[in-house]
Amino acid sequence: MRRSVYLIALLLPFLSHAAATHWTDFILDRGHVFLPVTIEGIESRVMLDSGAQVNSINKAFIGKNNLELDGGRAINIQGVYKIEKRSTFNNVKVNIFGSEFELDNLVEGNLGHHSNGLLLGSGFFQNFIVQLDYPNQKIRLLTRDSVNMHDVANVRTVVQQGSGMPIAQIEINGKTVWLLIDTGNAGSIFVDRKVASRAGLLDNIEGVSESFGANGFGANEFATADTVKFGPFEVSNVKVSFPAEGQKTHIESQYKELGSRLGGKKVVGLIGYDLLKDFVVTLEYSTAKMHIGLPE
């Protein structure tokens, strides 16, 4: 609760006199969306990940800067490839958008290079309508009363029971699937192997790649789908990856704390940057309403 309250307090000044914040540049690094941030007085950057149910601090950042943080309870975290017990930290001082606050329950994670300090997940996305202009690398936040997402949404989406995360329906080579809307997936669409088979992708495997998830890494194969239908748009020649034969995965979510029971629609993969990169994406996380459009 404290974590969400601080995130709300952080952003309210930017929306108190307007329906939307100004467009702010974000850093697009290999498909990941980053904003500048200061952590315990140290300049860094934060990744925005709609597919993460927890907020995370980078283990490499802690080690590089010899930080001594207040420890919290250890929790089990389910990533795409592995389940691990992770430490958590409280009272971590953060400055973003010019406001300083503290975050609790930050999970120690593997976020790559030590310059990647934080990851913000659902606690960031669920309080506002978030608009990401991928082609122009800009972000802004809108109040819920400024736009009726029920009226403008053009992608079929629902809130996944149990997790509360937004999932979207797309078609891959004419096969309908439900995928997690995941700004943290910097690669192609990712689906389980059974879906890839039904979509005819196993007949045209182009290669194997190594993929890194929240915990560990795995081997994926990839192929090109003739068509992917995403909302009102039909996109040709889209890369789709899937686990190599024998590779075990947990693909319903990333950075997921174990203990909640998932129900409702069966999530069989992740929407990634390769599908989002050409669109302006408007997402109301809490109600799973989504609009996609082309930039002006």
Q: Can you walk through the features of this model?
A:
This protein is mainly beta and 296 residues long. The protein is built from 6 helices and 26 strands.
Could you list some keywords that capture this structure?
296 residues, 6 helices, 2 domains, mainly beta, 6-stranded mixed beta barrel, 13% helix, single chain, Cathepsin D, subunit A, domain 1, disordered N terminus
How do the helices and strands line up, and which of them pair or pack?
Blueprint: H1 2-15, E1 24-25, E2 27-29, E3 32-39, E4 42-48, E5 56-58, H2 59-64, E6 70-71, E7 75-78, E8 83-86, E9 88-90, E10 92-96, E11 99-103, E12 106-109, E13 116-120, H3 122-125, E14 129-133, E15 138-142, H4 149-152, E16 157-159, E17 166-172, E18 175-181, E19 189-191, H5 193-198, E20 207-212, E21 217-230, E22 233-243, E23 256-257, E24 267-271, H6 273-276, E25 280-284, E26 289-293
Parallel strand pairs: 4-13, 5-12, 18-24, 19-22
Antiparallel strand pairs: 1-15, 2-3, 3-4, 3-10, 5-13, 6-9, 7-8, 7-23, 9-12, 10-11, 14-15, 14-25, 16-17, 17-18, 17-21, 19-24, 20-21, 21-22, 25-26
Measured by DSSP, the beta-strand proportion falls in 35-45%
Tell me roughly what share of residues is in helical segments. 10-25%
The first-to-last residue Cα distance is 38 Å
- Structural class, by secondary structure, is mainly beta
Q: Could you list the spans in which at least 5 consecutive residues all have pLDDT below 50?
A: 1-6, 12-16, 252-263
Principal-axes shape call: globular
Oligomer: single chain
